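Operator note (shift B, R.M.): manual run for N(6)-L-threonylcarbamoyladenine synthase requested after the automated queue skipped it. Running by hand, logging everything below so the morning shift can see what happened. Input copied straight from the record, untouched. If output looks odd, do not overwrite the archive copy; leave it for review.
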Amino acid sequence: RKYSSILGIETSCDDTGCALIDLNGKILSEALHSQNLIHLRNGGIIPDIAQDLHRRYIKPVVDKTLEKADLSMSDINAIAVTVEPGLPLSLAVGMKYAKHLARKYQKPIIPIHHMEAHALIARMDHDISFPFLTLLISGGHCLLAVAQDVNEFKLLGQSLDGAPGEVFDKAARRMKLRNIPELSQMSGGQAIETAAAKATNHDIFKFPLPLTETKDCNFSFNGFKSTALYHILKKEKEHNIEGDQVIPEVNDLCLAMLMGTTRHLLHRTQRAMEFCEINNLLPENKKQLVVSGGVACNNYIFKALSILCEEYDYKIYRPQPKLCTDNGLMIAWNGLEKWRKRIDIVTDLNQININPT
Ligand code: KG4
Ligand code: ZN
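Run finished. Output pasted below as returned.
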């Protein structure tokens, strides 16, 4: 054995990710195959296509990871793999391949919760101790939780309908941002952030704040989607827009939408902070907020959250952008965190399966 390490495999959505990390937490190698551009062309993720692509790329991505580190399966202590939540067809590919490797090379499997991995990866580059508050914002999820330990998360609230990234992606598509050359290769969220930076007047578009009356930490995003659609249709009519044309106020609309969603995220995070205070969930002298998930790449949202954190005496952390979006390293890291605590190291492969919900 050349090196003791953990292999991480991620296939919960549309990225085939793999990484190797040694038992001291040193990154040995990473590989990622992203389906983003294919799904952009199709106007959204088609589960069958996502599965086909995972099937096609899982072996090359894992092989490449091992090759880059100049290691073989015999150097690996355990295989960490995402088992929940995610698209059932996508999760199944990673699970099946992890089990195949585990059987062939006699390795234990460490099952990983995708959202927990989004939160914990912040601990790789930053000195963050348990417990901490976490806001996880992505294309499929939006939630607030207190991370109390590696495998102990207290859910404070979550989205009652869509997710912020999903709403950005759908609105971006409807605004035809792909037809603006500068934005054509970006995810919906990134395109909206970039367009919003060029806005001159956000006052012309109103986005009502949802759930203002409910005293919990839940979220709702579908209202932003329908309000965006309403504004787009109205402007398209006004300007007689047809075909591939984009409305002239597109930058202003992007900023108004970004501001609306940011206000909602802030409003609920503030409630979570107050909930933690009342229930003594965080130490008085060390209050920490971890923001992660693809939407955490957004600098406008992060800046707004930073101001809230200053107000409430929290330290704010977010992983570097490529670790906010889906990747294999966060799964390997979570595997290592579990390995160090000797939890969830499974040798009986019949005991583990995917749990998509
Ligand atoms: O975490 P992630 O890679 O996949 C899921 O688990 O969903 O997040 C992908 C989402 C996409 O919806 C994308 O539009 C969004 O993250 N995203 C952003 C930005 N970059 C990516 N949203 C807002 N601003 C960004 N800069
Ligand atoms: Zn994710």
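Quick read of the result: The longest strand covers residues 76-84. Residues 13, 138-140, 165-166, 168-169, 187-190, 193, 293-295, 297-298, 325-326 surround KG4 (ligand 1) (CB under 6 Å).
Leaving this for review. - R.M.
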